[in-house]
Amino acid sequence: MTSSVANPQPKTVTPEKPSYGEVVYHKLMTPQWLLNKATWNARKPDGAELVLEIEDDSRDYENILWVSLIPGEILDKNDAFTVKIQAILEHNNPAPLRNNNRNAPKDPMSIMVADGRYAYGIQIQDPTSYDNNANNDSGFGGQGAYLGMEGEVRGSVLQSPTPIPPTGLDATQAQIDDRNHVRWPQIFDITLAQVEPGPRRNLVGICSSALDGGYSTSFWFTDRLKGEEGLRLYLYRAEKEEIYNIKSLEVTIFRDCNYK
Fold it and tell me: Which residue among 166, 168, 225, 250 is least packed, with the fewest CB closer than 10 Å?
């Protein structure tokens, strides 16, 4: 009796299905939502309907609040992704008071995204002190209306806060009249893009607004966001005396297209 061994069937290789990108998180964070859902380190306001008014506090670089965005299992290690944040803020203190009243509203603050260890984001400069004079008191003169900001998330204060200057900024791009409220916008669009694996895997940041008819700058951070460890949104103040008024924060996270 002869026995026969069946020939093994060739394995079928299914090509990877291209991804055209998808939204993995989206939320419009209103003042009331932030009041009730965010985790607060700063003094929590008594109430908010249209504007969230955040008072001064006792520590520089304090974490005002944070919000959990996505858990670690949503993004893979090699996923390229983009975080987009639209911040609608209010600055309407009468101009003559700003240079005489240290408690004048000074928004915005540093708006950052963290992977549980490090935070990266944009610090939009205080319109009461920003100008293009390199010798001004703010220390940011000649660097533009925004700075990149990164630091370690540990405790209730941003550790080792490190400003990241803009890439290739033309300091004459925006000529700010510090006495003119009309020219300071209330809507800021922030993009944090984790580029695909390659020679430079660092995070890139972009901030733009209608400042002076349209103003944007970009930044290369020193490392990358590890989306596979989950992502959180953090708001940090710069100086303890500052006051912030927030109308809304809209956050969207995209898993980027992998189609070549």
Answer: 168
What one-character-per-residue DSSP string does the chain give? -----PPPPPPPPPPPPPP--EEEEEEEE-HHHHHHHSEESSPPPS--SS-EEEPP-S-TTBEEEEEEEE-TTSS-TT--EEEEEEEEE-----HHHHTT-TTS-----EEEEESSSEEEEEEEPPTTT--S-TTSTTS-TTS-SEEEEEEEEETTEEEEEEEEPPSS--TTS----TT-GGGS-SEEEEEEEEPPSSS---EEEEEEE-GGG-EEEEEE-SS---GGG-EEEEEE-SSTT--EEEEEEEEEEEEPP---
pTM assigned to the model: 0.81
pLDDT at 260: 60
Span of 163-167, 192-196, 200-204 with lowest mean pLDDT: 200-204
